[in-house]
Structures are given as structure tokens and as C-alpha cells.
């Protein structure tokens, strides 16, 4: 009995919608993703200390929800 060869399985293409972190939205200049893009790591570290929220988009964490684009309570 001959063994069957593995056949390539076609995976259907899926449309993935990814919001851009750089999209304009209110107070983005206060969000960690923007602050880190400016390489202001001291400010970023202060905002992330004792984090209570995590960003749904980028995964960064911050003490205050106002410093994230899409905050979720940890």
C-alpha cells in the first residue's frame, strides 16, 4: 500500500482590517503610542508605571485610560 503524499491545502484569503495607530483622533498627542514614536521614553515610563489599562490596538499599558487610544481595564 502506497502512502499518500501531503497535498498543499489552499487557505482562503481573508481581508484583515487594521486600524492605523497614526490615524487622527482626539488627544493622540497624549497617547503612549505617539509619545514612544517621539522616543520620549522618560515620559512613557512615568505614564506606564502602576498600569491599570491596556490598549486594545497596540498592547501598551498605562496608569490612566486617557494615555491610550483604545483603553481596556486590566
Description:
With about 70 residues, the protein is an alpha+beta fold. It has a domain at about 30-74. The chain contains two helices and three strands. The chain has helices at about 30-35, 40-50; strands spanning about 55, 60, 70-74. The chain has a three-stranded antiparallel beta sheet with strand order 2-1-3, with no helix packed on it. Strand 1 and strand 2 form a beta hairpin. It is elongated, with a radius of gyration of 20 Å. The mean pLDDT is about 85.
Distance between the termini: 57 Å
Shape: elongated
- Our estimate of the beta-strand percent is 5-15%
Mean pLDDT: 84
**SSE run:** HHEEE
> How many whole angstroms does the radius of gyration measure?
20 Å
The biggest sheet amounts to: 3 strands, antiparallel
Number of helices: 2
Total beta-strand segments: 3
Coarse structural class:
alpha+beta
Share of helical residues? 10-25%
Strand order of the largest sheet: 2-1-3
Q: Are there runs of 5+ residues with pLDDT below 50, and where?
A: none
Layout: helices, strands, pairs:
Elements: H1 32-37, H2 41-48, E1 53-55, E2 61-62, E3 71-73
Nutshell version of this structure?
This protein has helices spanning 32-37, 41-48, and strands spanning 53-55, 61-62, 71-73.
Amino acid at each position: 500500500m502506497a502512502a499518500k503524499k501531503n497535498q498543499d491545502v489552499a487557505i482562503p484569503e481573508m481581508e484583515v482590517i487594521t486600524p492605523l495607530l497614526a490615524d487622527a483622533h482626539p488627544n493622540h498627542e497624549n497617547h503612549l503610542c505617539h509619545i514612544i514614536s517621539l522616543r520620549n521614553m522618560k515620559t512613557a515610563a512615568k505614564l506606564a508605571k502602576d498600569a491599570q489599562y491596556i490598549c486594545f490596538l497596540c498592547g501598551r499599558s498605562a496608569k490612566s485610560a486617557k494615555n491610550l487610544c483604545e483603553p481596556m481595564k486590566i
